[in-house]
Each structure stands twice: as structure tokens, then as C-alpha cells.
Write a structure and sequence with these properties.
28% of the residues lie in helices and 8% in strands. The strands form four sheets. It has a two-stranded antiparallel ribbon. It has a two-stranded antiparallel ribbon with strand order 3-4. β7 and β8 form a beta hairpin. The model has no long low-confidence stretch (mean pLDDT 94).
């Protein structure tokens, strides 16, 4: 069974200075696109240290193990190896719906299941900014996804055939939107063996991402979470990669969140104060346990 795919349209997003600036803010901030679509200069991530990336947008191989090969594509304006020939709607469909410019299902490591919440205007801004990236010639191998995983991922794409808007009426609502498109719940929720989020454990931490040794933190407003945080501490942690003397462990992408405005970081914190407190002790020196 193939993925559900909507037909492409001829829509084009007007290039404006406002969209260019806002797209840069989103891509280099809450969306963190260059973490995958660039070269990692240092080759590894270290706690409390911001990684250096080169060839922004040119993509790289992110998985190469046995018969499994996955590359984040070149999304610069290069016409031979990048996205220079993609239409605006091909870009849009890939970002929010998980269908590549060539019609294939994108592996869900590309967080289109989070990006589907992007408003139409934010999506337009992201694409306008992507179009501005200078061309970099970087040919990458085609993906090799072993069976049955190659079939199972076809259930992930979901067509979007309605307007998507964002409500900025108050900080809590704005914060919820930012946590959705930023994938906060995906990383900060424990999962079962099938990688399905455990019911009632939203934002409670304890999930191991890829092969990183540390698991995600409980960020609910509970004693085993971040109830002791205030707004200033939250912002300082995401600006510096440290909570006091303790460094934040990768892959927590604080180096992207530090590019966000104080108002947006305050909005995320305001929303997190409203989520259900979950008693879940997460200690990276021991196995996470629900108490």
C-alpha cells in the first residue's frame, strides 16, 4: 500500500522581506532544519557545547548502517543536486506532509508529523527563506530503507487540504504551537517498544533518542520535573545550554532555541506550566522509572 498523497498545485509564495526574515527565524530557531540538512563540522555532539555546522542546507548522510542508508537532502537552490528545480508546492508537501518532490514517502526522521502544525504563513516564510540559500553542489545517495520498514512508513504522510492558521491570542496558546512544531512532545515523552508514546506521559521524559546515552528530561511542572524552574532559569538554560553548572545533554537542540526571542521562549515556558504534572523521575545516572 502506498502513502496517501494529494495532487500538487501551482501555488507560489510571494517573496517578501518580511517572509524572508521570518523564515530565517523559524529555520534557524524552533524548526532546527540545519541540524540535519548541513554538515556537522565536529563529527559529534557534546553536552553543553553548541555544535558547528558547515554547508548549510546542502544535506548529509544521517544513517548508514548495513542495508539502511538515509540522507537529509540538499535543499539549497542548486539545480543539479539540490532543490533548485522544486516547485513551491513540492517543497510545501515535503515539509508538512512527508511526500518528497519525486513522490516518495519521506522517512519520518524528517519531522513532518510535527511540521504539519505549521501555519500556512509560517510555511510560506520557511520556503521563501529556503529559496534564498546559495546553491551548493552536493550530490547525495538515494535512500535505501529495508523491508518491511520501507512499507510501514507509508502510513505516516497525511495530506493537508485545508487552511492551517495559528492563534497568537495569548502566550499559552502561542507556546503550545511552538512546542508542536518544535517537536518537544516527541522527544520528551517515553515510548513503548513500537515507539508509540505512552498514554498520560506527555512531556514526562525518559525517551532515548537514537544512540545518545542520555534520555530526555521530565519537563512537566512536577517535583520530578521542572517545577523549580522560573521563567528566567528556563530562558537562561535554552540560551546557554546549562542549568547552573549542569550542561544540557545532546540531542537537546538548545543551540537552535537560543536564537528565539524572549517572548517566544516565555510563551513555551508559559505553556509548559499548564501541562499535566507527571511524577516520573529521570536520572541519567540510572534507568528512568515511573514512581
Amino acid at each position: 500500500m502506498g502513502a496517501r498523497v494529494r495532487p500538487l498545485t501551482d501555488r507560489k509564495f510571494e517573496r517578501t522581506p518580511q517572509r524572508l526574515a521570518h523564515g530565517k527565524y523559524l529555520v534557524e530557531g524552533v524548526l532546527g532544519c540545519f541540524d540535519c540538512h548541513s554538515q556537522l563540522a565536529s563529527g559529534e555532539l557534546k553536552a553543553g557545547e553548541a555544535p558547528a555546522f558547515t554547508d548549510r542546507g546542502a544535506g548529509r548522510i544521517v544513517i548508514q548502517k548495513g542495508n539502511f542508508l538515509l540522507a537529509a537532502p540538499n535543499i539549497t537552490s542548486d539545480t543539479d543536486t539540490g532543490a533548485g528545480t522544486w516547485t513551491d508546492d513540492q517543497f510545501a508537501r515535503a515539509i508538512r506532509e512527508g511526500v518528497g518532490h519525486d513522490g516518495r514517502t519521506l522517512f519520518p526522521m524528517m519531522p513532518y508529523e510535527d511540521f504539519r502544525y505549521l501555519s500556512d504563513e509560517d510555511l510560506a516564510s520557511v520556503i521563501v527563506y529556503m529559496r534564498s540559500l546559495p546553491p551548493i553542489h552536493n550530490e547525495l545517495p538515494k535512500p535505501r530503507i529495508p523491508f518491511p520498514l520501507s512499507r510501514l512508513i507509508n502510513s505516516a504522510p497525511q495530506p493537508i487540504e485545508r487552511a492551517v492558521t495559528v492563534d497568537d491570542s495569548n502566550a499559552v496558546v502561542r507556546g503550545r504551537y511552538l512546542t508542536e512544531v518544535g517537536g518537544c512532545k516527541y522527544c520528551h515523552a517515553p515510548t513503548d517498544k513500537a515507539n508509540r508514546p505512552l498514554p498520560g506521559m506527555d512531556f514526562a521524559g525518559g525517551k532515548q533518542i537514537d544512540k545518545f546515552p542520555a534520555v530526555s528530561a521530565n519537563i512537566t511542572p512536577e517535583a520530578t520535573g521542572i517545577s523549580y524552574y522560573d521563567e528566567a532559569l528556563f530562558i537562561r538554560a535554552l540560551r546557554t545550554g546549562h542549568v547552573g553548572a549542569r550542561p544540557l545533554n545532546p540531542p537537546m537542540p538548545w543551540w537552535n532555541f537560543r536564537n528565539m526571542t524572549d517572548d517566544d521562549l516565555k510563551a513555551i515556558f508559559a505553556y509548559l506550566r499548564t501541562v499535566k504534572p507527571v511524577h516520573h523521575r529521570v536520572d541519567n545516572e540510572e534507568r528512568a522509572t515511573k514512581m
